[in-house]
Write a structure and sequence with these properties.
single chain, 276 residues, alpha/beta, TIM Barrel, three-stranded parallel β-sheet, 8 helices, 12 strands, 41% helix, 13% strand
Length: 276
């Protein structure tokens, strides 16, 4: 009986938390919709923005396609290599550009995302966690990415990454084990960056040029001086954060700002966050 009481209490707690989350989501969405009134991506130019996602599951495909069409109305999609070259050269960025990136290397990036991008000739960069990436599909890694996750994610395999590269996509590093750099020693950070780069280059026969920091909060999740220096020393050409905003010709490819997005967001939400 005590065990049943504990289980029942936990279930009620989870139901309450879920209901509270749904209420917060509705209130947040309503607030963002109001704030988006009068805003427009058209009000500025001369920038590259990096929308980034973690997943686009099968029930999110329609929303993702709608977002791609919306973004295409306001700017040009470019590859990560092109974006970094523009920032490295310090050339005047004339116009509006979008560079799509996806963190964590979840399997839906192969099953759902890549076909939609190929159909529309849109390049994107995918940052994988190398400890979660295996050669044989039959041994696919399946585990929670975050400690608070209540379900497992299925991750990309090396053969799938090779196919994505042949389709025109970029693969970069998201560390070996999706660890917060701020929690590591300098030597541990070096190992995460160097070993993940080596594994990508060895398994995909490419040069791994780009690194996206897990969580990516400046001064919270990584040291913008020491960790960026480590990335440069390791041979990366870019360091992507999760700080929102535009990147201009004055921006550094080792402090790339990105805009976190979800495939089920409304057009109002896109307009609000991409006009900040």
């Amino acid at each position: 009986m005590p065990d049943k009481i504990i289980v029942d209490s936990y279930c009620k707690y989870k139901d309450t938390q879920s209901a509270m989350f749904q209420v917060r989501t509705v209130l947040r969405d309503a607030a963002v919709n109001l704030l988006s009134i009068g805003r427009s991506i058209n009000n500025s130019s001369g920038w590259i923005r990096f929308p980034y996602y973690h997943h686009v599951f099968s029930d999110e495909r329609r929303g993702f396609v709608r977002q791609l069409e919306y973004l295409r109305n306001y700017g040009e999609f470019i590859s990560l290599d092109t974006a970094v070259s523009m920032m490295e050269d310090g050339q005047v960025i004339d116009g509006r550009y979008f560079c799509l990136t996806f963190d964590d290397g979840i399997r839906c990036c192969y099953d759902e995302v890549t076909p939609l991008l190929v159909e529309r000739s849109i390049p994107a960069a995918f940052f994988i966690v190398t400890d979660y990436t295996v050669e044989e599909p039959g041994r696919r890694i399946c585990r929670p990415l975050y400690l608070e996750a209540t379900y497992d994610y299925e991750y990309l395999t090396w053969p799938e990454c090779r196919e994505m590269i042949r389709a025109g996509m970029t693969v970069g590093s998201h560390t070996c084990s999706h660890v917060r750099l701020a929690a590591l020693t300098g030597d541990e950070v070096r190992r995460q960056l160097i070993e993940s780069k080596r594994m990508i280059e060895q398994n995909l026969d490419i040069e791994c040029r780009h690194f996206a920091c897990p969580w990516g909060g400046v001064n919270r999740d990584f040291d913008p001086k020491q960790d960026v220096k480590t990335a440069k020393d390791a041979g990366y050409r870019s360091f992507l954060t999760t700080r929102r905003g535009k990147n201009t010709n004055a921006s550094s490819p080792f402090a790339i700002r990105r805009d976190n997005m979800y495939a089920n967001w409304s057009t109002c939400q896109l307009r609000y966050f991409l006009s900040l």
